[in-house]
Design brief:
Residues 165-193 form the Intradiol ring-cleavage dioxygenases domain. This is Hydroxyquinol 1,2-dioxygenase. One of its GO terms (molecular function) is catechol 1,2-dioxygenase activity. It is built from eight helices and 14 strands. It is α+β, with helices and mostly antiparallel strands. It folds into two domains: 20-110, no CATH class; 128-319, Sandwich (Protocatechuate 3,4-Dioxygenase, subunit A). The strands form four sheets. Strands 3, 6, 12, 13 and 14 form a five-stranded mixed beta sheet that branches. The chain has a five-stranded mixed beta sheet with strand order 5-4-9-10-11, with no helix packed on it. It has a two-stranded antiparallel sheet with strand order 1-2. The protein is elongated.
Length: 324
């Protein structure tokens, strides 16, 4: 028994990570020296896990799994993840799953707040001849938004300052795209989406179609900043790392047309104090628009009678062709 204990001690010494050897670089990254013997032990495991996918017939699935394993193990080895930290991560993901339901998607919030959603969007929506830039989808889109006609109001009674939204939908050669489906949705002035009040409620969202000349126009609400739902695991993570849960003010769009790449994007008011501090990293310079404030009594474009101030914004949408 004593000899076995000595052997275990020797093995432990051979794989020991010396905490005194840790150093911090200019970027704040901690580097720890790991013995060659320990590196070999860890690399053998990586190699074995990667080899376990050799029989996978789906080349893309194999590529994804191998890449995931390489990066996951690299993370564990780089930060020298402790078993306690690993357990905390598992608990965090478990709680994220428990709070997710048909209305609230905590995993999307997690992806958004880590920048993974935006990076996936960047990879899949490459710049093309002035096409409108894409940004995050967000967790509050629903499929059954009511249809409105041009000039109608998508607020459906949601509280907030009225906003006149207009623009055109064209392809990258400037040709108007008639009949483009335009989905729009946004939070009210209290920072809440309709489904956060009632899963079956529909307000502050609609869909409409562009006219023969590619034009569209509707009434919405002047966007205001609001926090993402921060009463769950993602909110606790943001608080722990000293980050705000606030999203920059925005209005969501999803625009589709036959032969065009579907666009998911927002527009953001110029001068918003949140701006680039947007907790999901969704703001892009090209999507910042001037929402022009209109004094009370200013005539509206469609003759609507508004009691108080309102705003107006123009957003011309350019769709890239499919396959680019």
């Amino acid at each position: 028994m004593g000899r076995r204990t000595d052997q275990l001690k020797e093995a432990a010494m051979a794989t020991y990570v010396n905490p005194d050897s840790a150093r911090t670089d200019d970027a704040g990254t901690i580097h720890r020296e790991v013995s060659p013997e320990q590196q070999a032990v860890e690399q053998r495991l990586v190699d074995n896990v990667i080899a376990s996918f050799d029989a996978c017939d789906n080349a893309r699935l194999k590529e994804l799994m191998v890449g995931l394993v390489k990066h996951l193990h690299s993370f564990i080895r780089e930060v020298r993840l402790t078993e306690e930290e690993w357990g905390t991560a598992i608990d965090f993901l478990t709680r994220t799953g428990h709070i997710t339901d048909d209305v609230r998607q905590e995993f999307i919030l997690l992806s958004d707040t880590l920048g993974a959603s935006m990076q996936t969007i960047n990879v899949n929506n490459q710049a093309y001849k002035g096409a409108t830039e894409a940004t995050v989808f967000g967790p509050f889109f629903v499929e059954d938004a009511p249809r409105i006609d041009l000039d109608e109001d998508m607020a459906f009674g949601a509280p907030g300052e009225p906003c006149w939204v207009e623009g055109t939908v064209t392809d990258t050669d400037g040709r108007p795209l008639a009949g483009a489906r335009i989905e729009v949705w946004e939070a009210d002035e209290d920072g809440l989406y309709d489904v956060q009040y009632d899963a079956g409620k529909r307000a502050g969202r609609a869909h409409l179609f562009s006219a023969a000349d590619g034009g569209y126009r509707f009434w919405g609400l002047t966007p205001t900043p609001y926090p993402i739902p921060d009463d769950g695991p993602v909110g606790k993570m943001l608080d722990a790392v000293g980050r705000s849960p606030l999203r920059a003010a925005h209005l969501h769009f999803m625009v589709s047309h036959e032969g065009a790449r579907t666009l998911v994007t927002h527009i953001f008011p110029e001068g918003d104090p949140i701006g680039r501090k947007d907790t999901v990293f969704g703001v892009k310079d090209s999507l910042i628009k001037r929402f022009e404030q209109q004094p009370a009594g200013t005539p509206t474009p469609d003759g609507r009678d508004i009691d108080g101030t309102w705003s107006r914004v123009r957003f011309d949408i350019v769709l890239a062709p499919t396959g680019v």
